[in-house]
Amino acid sequence: CLYACQEECGANCPAGPLCGNKRIQRKEWKKLQVFDAGLKGRGLMVLEVCKKADFICEYVGVAVKRKFLDGLFARYKHERMLYIM
Question: Which of 24, 25, 29 is nearest to 44 (CA)?
């Protein structure tokens, strides 16, 4: 797997309000700004100071296996909105 995924705790977490694994539910993400990145389309800039291991934002997308990448590149060759990380 290319990506490490983690699930947030739910309402039944024994730590209750002290739980540190509910950052998305508590909206504890950094302030971001979308900007024009020229030929690459758009970019996302963090407007706050960040330290190593800080939570920036939730990535919502699709994990694609390497064997399917060539087909995706060919299919969307002329699309401007193809995001591959």
Answer: 29
Q: What letters, b where the CB count within 10 A reaches 16 and e where it falls short, cover 13-47? A: eeeeeeeeebeeeeeeeeeeeeeeeeeeeeeeeee
CA gap 18, 45 in Å, rounded = 30
Residue 48 CB contacts under 8 Å (≥ 6 apart), including other chains: 30, 31
Residues 34-76 have pLDDT tens digits of 999 887 778 889 999 999 988 898 877 777 788 888 887 787 7
Between CA 49 and CA 12 the distance in angstroms is 33
What tokens does 4 get?
Answer: 């490490």
- pTM (2 d.p.): 0.56
Give me the residues paired with residue 44 across strands. 34
